[in-house]
Design a protein that fits this description.
Chain lengths: 293, 213
């Protein structure tokens, strides 16, 4: 077996080992990598940043623990941005394990909001985030397509009470809020097919502004909706979250993860190149052998 | 963090290591972690389905005397259709399950038809029929790629004519567009998987070992 054969038949465990070493080393050593913001992420940031305080945004937490690493940083960055700007949020969680993700995010971001902070040179005084005033968490209901359609008529149809059992009519923030018409828009942070329902049943039927925060695996297939104007923004994977964190001047796990991602990608590219070099050199050798050279 | 919090973190860390150990080779620890995951998922889903569907959507509705008798009858229709679906388990009365299936197929088709057609067909076609030579040069290039990519991609999937000559050339360009799309999708998938690994590293080195704050 020559070197090119070895390059093509490298035991996958060596690749895993090399990748893990690179990831651990880049994780432990802190340094920064440049992050370039794309227009589709900036449009989501601008949408939140230009809303009047007191406006309502619906944020759909439609992911399970398996997407936590990619999507929770997005939720943190967007929700904190909204609350710092005193924008109210209606949360839904139409994925079965979503309520746990939403509750964890609400709890952690509420804690973070108690501290004074300065973002992009602007000072924000810490404050207590109150359920029913700053946000309403509607929770989970099965059959997301029907729930999305129902909310378009009246939030009270699929959700007579919020997640904690309080009737929507007794929640101060929900007074006069009937359906999507009273919200500025919807941001769906999703790790599955619920996104299709938001586009088809939600935006398609009720025509509200919709933006998506998606796992990397899903991102490419939703770009056509951006081109057609059905969605106004898209955040893809941890990179999308890092771009939002950069815009919001709120560095978190996503920006920290970018240095690992950069070097991990370089390792993968290296192995792809190695495999291809091995393949083409072997092919060349075979041709030369056939010609008797 | 209290005792149970610490216990949860240790358990999660050991299960994470157990799953990752598969990268070396299949082993007992991996199999045990996998079985735990499958069992807990099935149990969790069963409980959620029971409480969200059978309890909230059926039991609470039929026992709620504030509702009209009509509103209390409707959930029974769903319940009976559900029971009919289970008839598949018995060979002699298996045909009964066709009724709820027919209901599901009909209702879903009706719901999807117009909405999917408008969102996924009409809106996408409308965004493809665009003037190419408009705006700055970057927009012109982007528009050209959208039009050419859509046209050549469609030509590739046209099988009623042999792919030869100009038609074959357009088909070959079409497959290049498709390959680039798959490449972009694969790139995003790699990024996604790496993000999951970063999340686990964050947990192991940060939450579990406390090496990173």
């Amino acid at each position: 077996m020559n070197i090119f054969d070895k390059m093509m038949r490298l035991d996958r465990r060596w690749i895993f080992l090399f990748l893990i070493i690179v990831c651990v080393v880049t994780y432990i050593i802190p340094f920064k990598v440049p992050i370039h913001v794309v227009p589709e992420v900036r449009s989501i940031y601008d949408f939140i940043d230009t809303l009047e305080p007191g406006k309502i945004v619906l944020i759909a937490i439609d992911y399970d623990p398996n997407n936590l690493a990619e999507l929770q940083p997005m939720t943190f960055a967007i929700v904190e941005h909204c609350w710092r700007r005193k924008i109210k949020i209606i949360f839904t969680a139409l994925s079965q394990n979503g309520p746990g993700m939403a509750e964890q995010a609400i709890r952690d971001i509420s804690d973070s909001m108690k501290v004074d902070k300065t973002y992009n040179g602007k000072f924000y005084k810490g404050r207590e985030i109150k359920n029913g005033i700053d946000y309403t968490f509607l929770g989970y209901k099965p059959y997301y397509g029907l729930v999305i359609l129902g909310m378009g008529q009246d939030f009270r149809l699929p959700f007579p009470t919020d997640y904690y059992g309080t009737p929507l009519d007794s929640i101060p923030m929900m007074k006069g809020v009937l359906n999507y018409d009273q919200t500025a828009g919807v941001i769906d942070i999703s790790g599955g097919s619920i996104t299709d329902a938001w586009i088809n049943y939600g935006q398609g039927r009720f025509n509200f502004p919709l933006a998506l925060g998606l796992t990397g695996v899903m991102t490419a297939q939703y770009y056509p909706y951006l081109g057609s104007g059905q969605i106004f923004g898209i955040m893809g994977g941890l990179l999308g979250a890092a771009e939002y964190e950069k815009l919001a001047d709120n560095p978190g796990r996503a920006m920290g993860g970018m240095r690992i991602q950069l070097y991990a990608h370089m390792v993968i590219i290296l192995f792809i190149v190695m495999g291809n070099v091995g393949f083409f050199m072997n092919k060349r050798k075979k041709k030369l052998r056939e010609k008797g050279i | 963090m209290g005792f149970w919090g610490q216990f949860g973190v240790w358990l999660a860390a050991l299960l994470t290591i157990g799953i990752i150990s598969f990268l070396y080779k299949d082993n007992f620890l991996y199999k045990a972690c996998e079985a735990i995951f499958v069992g807990i998922s099935a149990g969790y889903w069963f409980i959620v389905y029971y409480w969200d569907n059978l309890y909230k959507k059926f039991y609470l509705q039929v026992t709620n005397h504030d509702l009209t008798s009509w509103e209390r009858i409707i959930p029974w229709v769903g319940f009976i259709l559900g029971v009919m679906m289970l008839s598949r388990l018995f060979e002699k009365i298996g045909w009964l399950s066709r009724w709820p299936l027919a209901f599901i197929v009909g209702a879903t088709a009706g719901l999807y038809m117009m909405i999917y057609f408008v969102s996924n067909a009409m809106a996408q076609v409308a965004s493809t029929i665009i003037p190419v030579f408009i705006g700055d040069w970057a927009t012109i290039i982007a528009n050209f790629f959208i039009v050419a990519g859509t046209f050549c991609g469609l030509v590739y999937f046209f099988f009623s004519k042999e792919h030869k000559g100009a038609f074959g050339l357009a088909s070959r360009v079409g497959i290049w567009f498709l390959m680039i799309t798959f490449g972009a999708s694969f790139g995003y998938t790699v990024m996604s998987r790496m993000s999951l690994m970063i999340g686990r590293l964050d947990f192991l080195f940060g939450t579990w070992l406390g090496m990173i704050k």
